[in-house]
Amino acid sequence: MYVLVLFVPLLSAIVSGLFGRKIGTRGSGILTSSCIVISTIISGCIFYETTINSSITYIKLWRWFDSELLTTYFGLQFDSLTATMLIVITGVSALVHIYSTGYMAGDPHIPRFMSYLSLFTFLMIVLVTSDNFVQLFIGWEGVGLCSYLLINFWLTRIKANKAAIKAMLVNRVGDLGLVLAMLMILKQFGALEFSTLYSIAPSGVEVICLLLFLGAVGKSAQLGLHTWLPDAMEGPTPVSALIHAATMVTAGVFLIIRSGPLFENSPLALTVVTIVGALTAFFAATVGVVQNDLKKVIAYSTCSQLGYMIMICGVSNYSTSLFHLMNHAFFKALLFLSAGSVIHAVSDEQDMRKMGGLIKSIPLTYTMILIGSLSLMGFPYLTGFYSKDLILELMYDKYYIAFAYWLGSFSALLTAFYSIRLIYLTFVTNTNSKKEALFAVHESKGNITFTLLLLAFGSIFVGYLAKEITISNIIPPVISNSTKGIPLLFSMFGAISAFIIYSMSSAGFFYFWSSSRAGPNHPLYGSPIHGVYTFLNSAWQFNYIINHYIVSNIFKFGHLITYRIIDRGLLEVIGPRGVSRILINITQNVSNLQSGLVFNYVLIMLVFTTLFISGLYL
Amino acid sequence: MYYEYLTVGIILFILGILGIVLNRSNLIIMLMSIELMLLAISVLFLINSMAIDNLMGQVFTIMILTVAAAESAIGLAILVAYYRIRGTIAIRSLNLLRG
């Protein structure tokens, strides 16, 4: 059963990928979905055995690297962390599979799509079930590869190709950190198994932890290496749901949680983790406020929530981080899939400025997004509340890093603001869409709404149901009521202010905020507010800075220095071309000695005979 | 007396060499210079044969004379053949094989 949870998604990926032509569109959809559902059921059983009955399971499959210094088994480890991750991954992945059969209907390459989705799930399962760093790295690279394949699923679009390459390359920066961390662990401790590593109470691991964190930064889209995440929206919506909700971006958080015993020995790394996480949460929340693309808003919200998870890891509350990861997977998958449903309904329009007034035509999707958003905002008694509030309280408890607490709280306000803004612009305000698009709006098919309903149940109840199991070891800090209320008050304030601002702007107040008037004719064009808006809308100009100061310089360096000066210049002159020219010159000179004139030959003969006789052998 | 004879022989030989090296016009002069060199060597052999009282030098001289006669015969024959083809025996025109 334990091996089966890996094997079934692999089987479905292989069958759907290699024999997709034989089993057809419907066949591949049914096959892969049912395989992942089976995997979900199995992981439920694993959860029961390993977490509820608290019996950790280790399975050694076979020897993999077998040398004197390094012996690595291909082994599986099922503890409560793995089991929780498995539930999240397979559960959300199964729903995404079912959703995709409806959402992608009519696409000519469905078997390939389903195969990639299953492969993604399989590699993610490999990542979370491994009992050593090397095997974890297979999954780590594998999900990067699958994200490339999936983002670039519509491979004829140049933007999709660029986004996929960017995702792959930016991830690779982080992967480098993970590889270096692995090498350093091997050098310092001589083992890569988690169980061995954590039983020897490692010390002196500052550099290792920072490198591991670099890996997590790349995969979990923290500040600095986050630029791939919004661009990854070029893929189909179910892919975004899979990448941003349950699987890929959580891998970085998972790595930190898994390496928790290492991080515990490195206060510096923990502080860095907290600060970067808090900054990411704040940064992504501010950017999310002004995005106009429906999916990008949710993407930045993912980035922001990942910041929360990383931040709380930095104060050693790993189980809270895991809890938030699980809750986030449910409501973020719900948000993404509902957004997909909206996009589907309005004839593939993604710009929120061209939507509006959908509340009457697609009330079910509206309800779903509302549930997801309220959960995301940490509305009391919904899933997000249990983890998000706890995170902020625990942050408040660590007085020495109050800065992160206030950044986190302010991000909560902004989160509420952009969630309500999304709902308002999409559903409530007067419509801006075309007449024919508006008339064609319809609720999606059964297999789409079914998955949304399931995820909505998850978004409402998971936090309450799982909190005893996941965070029973956390002692909630004793804080005053007014402090406890701060995140909630902030969220409510953000939500209400968003509602007021946008309803007033649609009613005519703040008319300069109405986004339909953007452009040089806008009354605020060129003013500081416009500058701030542009700054936030372009994500703090990170792409600009990275492109102009790093990427283009590296490109120029690559072309000018390494290619034209070193490769085609220096090495060419020293190497083949120079040597051949010198040799040709010498031989030319030597052969010019044979002038064809007999008396010259005689002279040369005499000279050399004389030298020979006089003993001056050359 | 021995050294004077020796000097004469060597000077003759050097004259023959210079005749070849400095001569840039005529193949016949070159052949004559070669003959001169062979004669100079013969003279040196004879002188040394007399000086050390050994007949081997005179034997060699006769051999050299034979070889010189044969060589000049063949050389002149080549020269004639060459003249038939090219119509000239100037050494400057003998530069078809250049490196």
UniProtKB/TrEMBL annotation, chain A:
All copies of domain NADH-Ubiquinone oxidoreductase (complex I) chain 5 N-terminal, residue ranges: 64-114
Domain NADH:quinone oxidoreductase/Mrp antiporter transmembrane, chain residue ranges per copy: 130-415
Reaction catalyzed: a ubiquinone + NADH + 5 H(+)(in) = a ubiquinol + NAD(+) + 4 H(+)(out)
Subcellular location: Mitochondrion inner membrane
Keywords recorded for this protein, A-Z: Electron transport, Membrane, Mitochondrion, Mitochondrion inner membrane, NAD, Respiratory chain, Signal, Translocase, Transmembrane, Transmembrane helix, Transport, Ubiquinone
GO-annotated molecular function: NADH dehydrogenase (ubiquinone) activity; NADH dehydrogenase activity
Entry annotated with the keyword Mitochondrion: yes
Membrane-crossing segments per the record: 30-49, 84-106, 113-130, 136-155, 167-186, 198-218, 239-257, 269-290, 297-317, 329-346, 358-379, 399-427, 448-466, 486-513, 598-617
NADH dehydrogenase subunit 5 C-terminal domain sequence ranges: 418-613
Family the entry assigns: Belongs to the complex I subunit 5 family.
UniProt-recorded name of the protein: NADH-ubiquinone oxidoreductase chain 5
Organism in which the protein naturally occurs: Plenaster craigi
Encoding gene (name): ND5
Automatic annotation (TrEMBL), chain B:
Swiss-Prot/TrEMBL GO biological process terms: ATP synthesis coupled electron transport
Protein family membership: Belongs to the complex I subunit 4L family.
The gene coding this protein: ND4L
Compartments, as annotated in UniProt: Mitochondrion membrane
PANTHER family registered for this protein in UniProt: NADH-UBIQUINONE OXIDOREDUCTASE CHAIN 4L, NADH-UBIQUINONE OXIDOREDUCTASE SUBUNIT ND4L
HAMAP family assigned: NDH1_NuoK
Keyword Membrane found: yes
Domain of life: Eukaryota
Main location: mitochondrion
Record has Membrane as a keyword: yes
Family annotation (InterPro entries): NADH_UbQ_OxRdtase_chain4L/K, NUOK/Mnh_C1-like
Protein name, UniProt field: NADH-ubiquinone oxidoreductase chain 4L
Gene3D superfamilies to which the protein is assigned, alphabetical: 1.10.287.3510
Keyword annotations: Membrane, Mitochondrion, NAD, Translocase, Transmembrane, Transmembrane helix, Transport
Organism whose genome encodes this protein: Plenaster craigi
MF terms (GO), sorted A to Z: oxidoreductase activity, acting on NAD(P)H
NCBIfam families: PRK05715.1-2, PRK05715.1-3, PRK05715.1-5
Pfam families: Oxidored_q2
